[in-house]
Every structure is written in structure tokens, then in C-alpha cells.
Specification:
alpha+beta; five-stranded mixed beta barrel; OB fold (Dihydrolipoamide Acetyltransferase, E2P); 5 strands; DNA polymerase, domain 1; DNA recombination
Length: 224
């Protein structure tokens, strides 16, 4: 199983890149969002990958983070959602947007992805709503593993220069994960805690851990 590739981008197609890894070229299909975020042709990049194996087909799909790869694996577990539909959803919403839409039951946001109709969007939400909080809670630890954007070791070897790494954690993902952990420790069910955090992040994407917990507690408090 090929789980990660790092190399030079030799070619950029409309939905894929050709990645040269030690002289071997790998065609890796990516979402439109990921394609826009990747560096230019000739530069080095790394992607986490998922290999689709069929009787007459081998295709690699690439993701900039482990969190996004986990969402891809969840999405493709839904009947009717193949790799292309999953990439369309992730390309339209990103992993964070996908998490919020599913947690909040917002199937219309899923439907906004090209090629995903209303019935299929509702099925995605219905089947994954209970699983979404788990991935949301993992986001912080996953980002600890996957951030920074991977720096290619080949580039370092060729230049002889010391690579400089970016910060290893995504503040937004860490805040989300920490807030969910705090809320569940306080006795709230993971699903209701995740829904509260998702609603707050929709209104205030830059909320830190303290703000998330405070707003979530206010939201979850009994009314009247």
C-alpha cells in the first residue's frame, strides 16, 4: 500500500499531478482545492495517498493532510460515493467544511459538490453524522502529524541546504479537538458537543479553544 509520496511535480493536469519520486513518475489524482494549493511545476511536494485497486484499474488519490485522507475513506464508505464524488465534496468544502456540514446535518452543503444529488447528499449526512465527531476530535492530533506542508527530503539532499520546518500544529484543528475533549469530559455526548462546536466555527472560524468552550457551554445550557 502506498501511503505517502514526496517528489518533484513534473506535470499538472486538470485533476491530477505527475510526481517524480526518485525517477519514478506517479500520477496522483487530487481535488481542485488541493491542486490550487500545490506548488508550481518543477517544485517539490508531498501528498498522503489512497490507492484504489480494481480488476482493470490502479489509481492513486492524494491529500495534503491525514485528516482529509480520513474523510475520504469515510465518504467512500457510503454507497454511491466513489473516489471522484469524494474528491468533489472535499474539493468544494475541504475537510473542515465537510465535518461541519455532516455534523450539523447540512446536506445542502454536501449537495453543492459537483455530481452529488440531493438523495446522495442526504445519505452521506445520515450515514456519517455519528462518525463525524470522531474525526473532528482527531483533527488536532492528526495535524500534529501532518503539519507542516511536507518538505521533500530530495530537495534537501540536492541542495545541501538545511530545511526549515513550519509550525507543526494547526491552531484551528487543535482548538476544535481540545474543545471537544473538554466538553465530553464535562459529560456532554460527543455528538451534541461536536454539533455545538461546528455551529460556533461556522459563525467564527478563528475562535480559539477558550472561546469555543465558552460559546459551546452557552449553546448547550438548558434554555429557560
Amino acid at each position: 500500500m502506498i501511503g505517502r509520496l514526496a517528489g518533484r511535480i513534473d506535470y499538472r493536469g486538470p485533476d491530477h499531478v505527475l510526481l517524480d519520486v526518485n525517477g519514478v513518475g506517479y500520477i496522483v489524482y487530487v481535488s481542485e482545492r488541493t491542486l490550487m494549493e500545490l506548488p508550481a511545476t518543477g517544485e517539490f511536494a508531498a501528498l498522503y495517498t489512497d490507492l484504489v485497486v480494481r480488476e482493470d484499474l490502479l489509481q492513486l488519490y492524494g491529500f495534503p493532510s491525514l485528516q482529509e485522507k480520513e474523510w475520504h475513506r469515510l465518504l467512500t464508505s457510503v454507497q454511491g460515493i466513489g473516489a471522484k464524488a469524494s474528491m468533489a465534496i472535499l474539493g468544494a468544502l475541504g475537510p473542515d467544511g465537510t465535518a461541519r456540514a455532516i455534523t450539523l446535518g447540512d446536506w445542502s452543503a454536501i449537495r453543492a459538490a459537483p455530481g452529488v444529488g440531493p438523495k446522495l447528499a442526504q445519505r452521506v449526512v445520515n450515514e456519517l453524522k455519528d462518525k463525524a465527531p470522531t474525526i473532528m476530535a482527531m483533527a488536532g492530533s492528526l495535524d500534529q502529524v501532518i503539519e507542516p506542508k511536507p518538505i521533500n527530503a530530495l530537495a534537501t539532499a540536492q541542495s545541501g541546504a538545511e530545511t526549515r520546518q513550519k509550525p507543526t500544529a494547526s491552531p484551528r484543528a487543535a482548538a476544535q479537538s481540545e474543545a471537544l475533549s473538554a466538553l465530553t469530559n464535562l459529560g456532554y455526548q460527543q455528538g451534541e458537543a461536536a454539533a455545538a462546536v461546528a455551529r460556533i466555527l461556522t459563525d467564527d472560524p478563528e475562535a480559539d479553544t477558550s472561546a469555543l468552550i465558552h460559546a459551546a457551554l452557552k449553546s448547550l445550557a438548558p434554555k429557560g
